[in-house]
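User: I want to check something. If I give you two sequences, will you return the structure for each one separately, not as a complex?

Assistant: Yes, each is folded on its own. Here is the first sequence with its structure:
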Amino acid sequence: MGTKRRSFIFFHRLSVTCHNENFDKNGKNKGDRRSKKQVFESYMSLEEVSHGLKRGELHQGQLRINPKNYNEAFIPSPDDTRDIFLDGVVARNRALNGDIVVIQILPQEQWKVKPQVSNSDLLIPGFSSTLGSKAWLAHSIVDPPLHPSIGRRGFLHANSESPIFIYQVVYIVERKHSRAVTGHLKFLPDKPFAMFSPVDHRVPRINVKLDDCPMEFRANPGDFAKTLLICRITDWPVDSNFAEGRLAKTLGQAGEIEPETEGIMIEYNVDFSEFPQEVLDCLPKTLPWTIPPEEIEKRRDLRKECIFTIDPATARDLDDALSCKQLPDGNFEVGVHIADVSYFVKEGTPLDNMASQRATSVYLVQMVVPMLPRLLCEELCSLNPLTDRLTFSVIWKLTPEGKILDEWFGRSVMHSCVKLSYDHAQRLIEAPERLFPPDELPPIDAEHTVDEIHQAVLHLHSIAKNLRAQRFLGGALRLDQPKLSFTLDKETMMPQGCYIYEYRDCNKLVEEFMLLANMAVATHIYRTFPTLALLRHHPPPKAKLVKELEVLCNQLGLNMDFTSAGTIHKSLCAIYGDDEYSVYRRQVLNNMCSRPMQLALYFCTGTKLLKEHFHHYALNVPLYTHFTSPIRRYPDIIVHRLLAASLNLGPRLGLSAEEVQIRALHCNDKKTLSKKVQELSSELYFGVFVKECGPLESKAMVMAVLDKSFDVLVLKYGVQKRIYCKSIAGLDSYRFQKAEKVPQLLLVWTSDDEESSPVEQVISIFSVVDVQLKADEVPLKYSALLKRPENVAS
């Protein structure tokens, strides 16, 4: 059964690729040129790939290219415990970052022989954002080849040299990369084409026919030196080092926020176009829209209850609301009320298809690209204050300690009495005895009082603290990372300032009840639909990387127990320390522990054979799903439909298990891309901030030490940067060394005068250094410059 499902997904992907890659009916690439010397191997046929995968001679995985060294690429090994190294562009065989590829180990006569790498060159894989090639080559030496028939032959040679097993891409199963890239156009004298240089160095240079270039470029190519364009790769012949492409759009001047943002969205395949008319035709026609009386009759009427939202001050898509009232017996009735998006988004409609394709709203610093039309996400579905709204509710009877005594699921109608920001909620939590005047909160419904809302928030906070404590006692893990936020000019949307977002009690309050609702719904829909439920699985961390992290922690004298998520959390809580830099050591340790972790993924329960595979590692719960954000996440809409069907409040889901799985895989991809776009948007704005307000001074803590560079966490801004020793001004020399197996860099600074001795500075993990962030000549790029130490203590 499992093999059939995997084959289904594999062939679904192949069908996509065959269409895009211009294959013939047998799966062979058409149009391979033979007139010039062949640079790349032709791809295998579909039949050869299928047989090779079944026999274990080939391996399928997702390609990752090192952003700091485009010659290095990796895919996970079959057992997912290590990475397989692909050496050079030719080995990737025209695949791009993120593509699902099939690789083959080349014949032994094509293996490379490299000298054994000395200990000083061996770096700790997994503990820097990008590893040097020496570390990965050493890693490849000690790992056996994929195909068992090859065995471990040739590992030891009399001349102390070892083979590097060479792997090569032989097929592209699915082109995950959009093939659209931002970059600059350069004129080539006496050539019938121009050269497009992508900003992302992992993408090859692209030849663009001069006839396809703007007329202005052909006349005055120098005027385009700082112009940012979008180019789409259309072909990559086997006899060329360069791809071929066509210009798609001129974005504007490099370094300006608007064109740079548009380039990011196009490159990562974010659909930010206007919704087509067929989608808009699915929306209610009569505006202003009101809930039909017959719909209210079908639902639990909660409009008189004290229900409110807690969100960021600028939020306009309000998915969730909370309620809490004390019962005569001392227990509490607590409700989580979620926008009933599935009422408006009917399965199989153009609106549903569009939401499924977009899969998620994308949040950039200055804007949101919504999954749904704004009429829904900001008005009719959004739980705006003082307005009747349709909801799906989970209501519990809880003890003050958070024990569930009773549970109810159902469709409801509610009326939010106030829209609280996180700041409002935090002030209410921090002043439990204070009587707040009405003018310190947003407008409140006349049916309710400030004190009623205040008491509800305090009760929720108290229960949430107990729920949170129980979760971590039960073995949960949370690895917080600093998040950079910006204050923007309302007119220009340029950054005026930035700060590290503080995760406070008000955030924890909301999080605990959203988690509780998601877990409750997961259990309910799985019980009713054991082969159709859409759940969220978090696999355990990669064992090999955990082992390497454990070795590093032992070398650093850190007593860490990596047995489970719970033991990691307990260890982290015990070793942070309480000095002025303890919070930053926590961030560095959290970052280290995040490296072996895998991504949480959506899946359909009908496609996994063992229930153990459903487990969510970080939460340490057997079943988990996403129910609480249907305005901005498509999986939540499917979960709402499953929940409605389980309660006989809606039709049975019109999808098979395989179709749910295909949607789950698509949502996984879109979520990953959305997160990357969000990160790039933040980097873009911080680059502008450094340019406009820099240079910026800050303390920094060393996160990782390599042989010629080291990574730092810039404490004031929460950003991570790599500092290369060769670029440090005033440095006389440097040397990589190990002190009791702990990697260090010894920096020797030139003396201030002839009589003074050179100043030595030791760089090791957790060292605190002074850095300056300064804008580069490349638009919106900046560097971290190490400042000369005032004293030699590190």
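And separately, the second sequence with its own structure:
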Amino acid sequence: MEPTGREIAGHAVCVGMWLVVYGAAGVVDAATLDFQLQRQSTQPASTEWVQHGRDAQRTGYQPQAVAHPWRWKWSWNGPNATGGIAAGHHTLPRNVQPITGGAYVFIADGSNGVRVLNKSDGSVARTISPGGNCNGTPAYDTASGMLLIPSSNGNLYKVNPANGTVAGTYNAGSAIVGGVCLINGRAFVSAGSTVRAVDIAGMTEAWSYAAGSPVVTPPSYSASRDAVVAVTQNLNVHCIRNTDGQAKWPPVKPTPNTYAAGSTEADWGWPVIADVHGYVLVRYRLPWSTLWTWSPWPTNNATMRTNLQGNPSQQCLFAIDLDDGSVPFICNVGNGGWGDNDFLPMGPAPCVRKFDNGDEIAYTVCRGDSGPGEDGRADSHFGELMLDSTTVSGWQAGYVRFIDYGSDFGGSEGFAFPPTDEQPFLTVAGDQVLAGHWALGLALQLNDRSASRGTFASPITVTYLSHFVTSQQSQGFSASHYIGTPFGQEPDWRQVPLGFYIYYNQGSVYDSYWSNYACWVVSDGLVLYRSCDSAIIALESGNPLAAGEREPTWGELAEAAAAEEYYRATDNPGAVDRPARGPAIITHEEAWNHIGEVKTVAGTIRYIHNNYKTTCLGFKNPHQGAFAVMIRERDRGNFPAAPEEYYRIGQTIRVTGKIVWYQGDPVMYAEHPDQIEIVHQLARRIPER
């Protein structure tokens, strides 16, 4: 029979009186498969993830998947022995990925330098602090065993990770942007308005390319063209010959849009090289308003293509030919990201997968929906992006093939993912697609990729693998951190089919330790997950009920409970109610210092937006990075008129309530208008309903 679109990777075993699901891939009828499209990537390759995106092309693809089922091996900067928040927990820099090399896992840790973790158990072998802040992913040179560390002070450090000794330094003149790009014997970095090549043997400059505008992405490297690619603030794409550091072709701006800080930019992205085809894939951030241009986005590729041809400003992902800078086709990928209230950060970069026969495709988050009541905030799906018109019969270059996940494709699951304003970032390992959301880690294995699949009516089928949620509180705590049946993130409910929880009964930990999104890394037999709150979790192949970490002793449990109580009362004030300190009325700039306290906050409204989940009254425009008042959809009926109409930009207000974290910013939730006093009323007033 034909396989269903979704299967849970597991079978039942009886443990005591409990029936638990674990292990084993879903069964698929081989007769339905097109074996030309079922091949696993088996070309010889290092099993290590040694730099941002795994390789110099930033493909985000690991040919060597870790066999499912997985079990919890260790954690760092995450939970304690009882599932609480471990003492010393802190936020990692945005975009950094864990990498591996030899016996170690390396993670950039900002002002703390680089943490060197023992791959076997996650313990800290040493901390390397060469100078400045380490805000970009380092790179590990397998030939020399050296670690290349980028710094905010403009230095690129060559360090021996076995003892932390600095073996060489190169100064790039400005803070280095993002991660190091590493090939045999040479490193590339972006700094200021330059891209630089450094020969790592002597840490000497090979060449420096002047881009004419601040370089806002880390560089990527094409081995087939021996060229380096980076994107500048003015949205230009630069292709640089590695032989002499000169432009291979004049800078190209493929989008008709112009740079606008905070809405239309290339910042926080990275170029991805499709070396078989000789393309670079470049993603741009676009405004929140693009969610509504076609709401929902169409499900037919021909319609998507026609729409983007007629309105090219809506295109967010571009394929650019590395030979001449031309754009060979339109990528049918709609804009999205994670954010709300008129704020949409950079969306996910694609992953490029090369098969052992030379075929090459990309994986991305695409858009399209036809369900009743769907709109542009909820029309995203996982998908394949075609890079030519021959790899899959009947599918043109730039077309997307939908991947089945959740109830959007007619299933009965209690979840549908991902929303367009919550798009996760992707990693691909063999046939496994792994997605990092700010609350969840999603994992699935591709099954039937035959040419007849990929339409919205007949998507590519999958098997569910073990997911992550940040915290759960309804099923008790186990040292395995594993639940083999559907459960979810609590209290900010999002359901998953099975998998691991990081914390027990800790709520929305990510709001207090916001680093924008989670990511997966697959390296040397480990599945590494970096949560949005900056925990690093290592999984390995095995029975998830036989956790790599032993059950704690009673003494360790008591010690962890005491440490958690102290931590929640001191270092993590957002986790508990705290007595109010200082004056009764504070300014919105002072809210950062009063998390967990009930206060009256005064300020002038500078920003109002309703995203149909919450109405935001911001004291700054844009509201990110400042105190804001949030009115949830469920509380709108308590107000005399629609909050976005009742309150107006320019009004001075005082709002009273508890100050808490939301995505790293202080906010206050207003459930009733009595909490908000209008101190200065404008001339026109919206009539009450």
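Because they were folded independently, the notes below concern the second chain alone. Residues 554-569 form the longest helix (16 residues). The chain has four domains: 1-81+424-576, 96-210, 212-267+269-345+349-401, 578-680.
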